[in-house]
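Researcher: Here's a chain I'd like modeled. Treat it as a single chain, no partners, no ligands.
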Amino acid sequence: MTASVHAAHLAELNVATLRHPLDDPRMAPFVEMLDPVNAAADGTPGFVWRLAEEGAADATGLRPAGENVIVNLSVWESREALWDFTYRSGHLEVMRRRREWFERHVEAYMVLWWVPAGHLPTVGEALERLADLRANGPSPRAFTFASSYTAAEAARHLQAVPPTRPEQAPAGDAAPV
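Model: Modeled as a single isolated chain. Structure tokens:
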């Protein structure tokens, strides 16, 4: 984790539904890109943190959103730092080829939100933000690159409007993620 002078950092979650298991030969080009792309992220100015499975170099073994869904959760000093990595680095090659490896999503698969500097979001927190975006559309609480909010806008909104809590499911009912 890099040191930062920013009061807020930008958290990012994206989910991807695999077309094939990661050990399938058709996924080999993606798997081969993981280490170099993650190393590039780690060395990018503005990078703060990314989720990795304990004892692993990445989070592909974690499946909190479903057995065939991989997650990427990271924290950045600014929207610009994340944008530059996503669209102006070797990561762009992965984005260009994503249809080879991942199913097309019919709903939001990426969400951004501001966190206090030093806070590392949990996967549960991240999935809740994605659910919020899917249910309510972009807001200062959960947004996208195309509908982004500044940290100041988010702070003003979040002070005025406390986060909503989903209703508790009756005992024995499991709510889908």
